[in-house]
Amino acid sequence: MNLFLKFFSLLFCCFLMGCQSFFYFPLKEKLFEPKNIRMNPEDVFLKTKTGNTIHAWYFPTTEKVDKGTVLFFHGNAENLTSHFLMFYWLPSYGYNYLILDYPGYGLSTGKPTPASTVEAGIAAAEWLNEKKDARPLIVYGHSLGGIIAMKTVEEVKDSIPIRNLVVEGSFSSYRKMGSYVLSRRWWTWPLQPLSYVTLSDEYAPKPLAGLSPIPILFIHGSDDPAVELENTTAMFKEAVSPKDLWIVEGGRHGDLYEIRRGELREQLLSYLAKTSTAANP
Question: What is the mean pLDDT of the chain?
Fold first, then answer.
């Protein structure tokens, strides 16, 4: 019994020490060169209100008709030099596309926290609105990027027009997601309540209904091993119209635009066309 208690005391201490970095796995190294696929992004460096320098890549559309601008929030690992590949195809379909790195990722300074990541998102949205496209933005968040995107939209929606919000394979509560992660192993299953003690939802969106009337599209792979599908179905239930839910059969985490010859690309493009603000340059 004493050994059992010592074991869980050790787990408890490890969890407490690591709780702030529970969601973040940044890399500084450059992982892929856009020029290898004939892309040449604009390097963008932004300042947050607390002084972090945020690195982003801006890809202008290669088409004559400019259909809008996508602000993309990537997931919790690596950096933008790998994640930009998720939407490398967008510029050839008429969309500008900006992807940012959170503090501590890639060339961005600082440390990633729920607060600092949202600050980075706000800086990126403001820069796009002021420097590139005053039309309503399309905001897309994948995995960890989904909760950051939702909170960013909540913060800026009264000052920056938002055309669409798309949330893929994500969650709306750090505490609940922490509990999900702890429930996946028998040796951490008893520690689930600790996620509600050590993690904060101060920088989580609340409530999702408050994002209305911005159209929200929720997307999730049916076989996602990283973020449970229940997170997305719960968010869809909490949100109010206009809202849509796409469950991609056989989809996992981050592969939804590649499986079945990329059929989801056409589906997304068709969805975005319904709220098109296209303008000739």
Answer: 89
More confident residue, 93 or 9: 93
What is the CATH topology of the domain spanning 26-273?
Answer: Rossmann fold (3.40.50)
Alpha-carbon Rg for the chain in angstroms? 19
Q: 237 is written with which tokens? A: 């239930």
pLDDT of residue 178: 74
Inter-residue contact 275 to 215 (CB < 8 Å): yes
- Spans of all domains in the chain: 26-273
pTM of the model: 0.91
Least confident window among 7-11, 166-170, 264-268: 7-11
Picking from 59, 30, 54, the residue whose alpha carbon sits closest to that of residue 42 is 59
CA distance 139 to 150: 9
Q: Which residues contact 174 (CB under 8 A, 6 or more apart)?
A: 22, 23, 114, 147, 195, 199, 200, 201, 203, 204
Lowest mean pLDDT among 21-35, 101-115, 116-130, 155-169: 21-35
Backbone dihedral angles phi then psi of residue 33, each to the nearest 5 degrees = -95, 120
Angstrom distance (rounded) from CA 208 to CA 205? 6
Residue 12: φ, ψ to 5°: -60, -45
pLDDT computed for residue 153 by the predictor: 98
Task: Report the C-alpha gap between 160 and 148 in whole angstroms.
Answer: 16
